[in-house]
Amino acid sequence: MGKRIWDIELMSSEIRRLYEGGLIDKQTFIRVQLVLKREHRKEEKKEEEKDRSK
User: Name one Pfam family in it (predicted).
Assistant: First the structure.
């Protein structure tokens, strides 16, 4: 796994804490989670392609 995947996972965890602490609303939380999941999938796909080319 690349470092960016770790960063995305950390962001997801931090966003969850913000939501649970009432600092962001549900709509914002869901939107951010969707973006982070999409970016996570992109990075996983990139890693798979990189591994195949070895």
Answer: YqgQ-like
Sorted by where each starts, the structural domains of the chain and their CATH numbers stand as 3-52 (1.10.287)
* Pairwise CA distance, residues 52 & 16, whole Å: 34
Instruction: Enter the pTM of the model.
Output: 0.85
Query: Which letter, b or e, does each residue of 10-47 get, where b requires 16 or more Cβ atoms within 10 Å of its Cβ?
Result: ebbeebeeebeeeebeeeebeebeeebeebbeebeeee
Q: Which amino acid is at 26?
A: K
Q: Residue 8, Cβ neighbours under 10 Å: how many?
A: 21
